[in-house]
Amino acid sequence: MPFLRTVALSLLTCCIVPAVQAQVVPATRIVRFATDDWPPFVSPRLPAEGMSAAMVSAVFERMGYLVKYEYFPWKRTMQLGLGSPRYAGFMAVWRTPEREKLCHFSVPIGNTHGVLAYLKEDGSPGASLQELGKLRIGTVAGYANGEQFDAMVARGELHTEEGLNDATNLKKLLIRRYRVIVIERHVLQHLVMGPEFSKAERERIGFVDTAFRERPVHVCFKRDADGALLQKRFNEAAREVDLARLERDYWKRLEQIPAGLPLAP
User: Fold this and answer.
1) Taking the model in full, what pTM does it have?
2) Of 4, 8, 79, 115, which is least packed with CB atoms within 10 Å of its CB?
3) How confident is the model at residue 24 (pLDDT cuts 50, 70, 90)?
């Protein structure tokens, strides 16, 4: 998977931001979501505030709504998205059995693939979760990392330490605080191509993508009557929007370059 080019992103805004944002929208036609700054899926620094945000905004535009995204650390995002009357819910979230009790989930708003990132000078940690053994693994507080991974952590078979966000975990990997980190592939590629990391640091990092399966992310609408109604209307409107094409076009417009992180040690 190639890296995402970070230059000239501002040129894309006219192509991706829904036209409704240029209009004056009544306050009653604005819907707000709590979210984590999780580029390139959701971020205030990207055109249309990220790929998943572009998809959500396109659906709500069809419904006649303007979407506002407000950013917090992930645990706070979940608390506010579920508990504050200001928000219709939160995003972008992986679906789990535990979260079924908290959310009315939207149709997918993007696809993700978790990887194990490591320092090439230390060698690959292995191609499967079972090979990680007693290694210290960096994860993000509040993230669900798949049923198998989370179950192994609960049984004490994997040893994890939670960090605030992916960028922090990546910096801890570079100073060997962690032997390996769990991170989404697009997120890793976007971060290492950004200004926080040098070319030398980028070239130290490898990853393996065989330990996790691809998973979609969703909007979590509150699990109440209003949330159920909004989810129903959103999912109905989403059938009239070519979300798969929008997702493909967004990645394409970010101008992927041909060289990426190696998949082998």
Assistant:
1) 0.79
2) 8
3) low
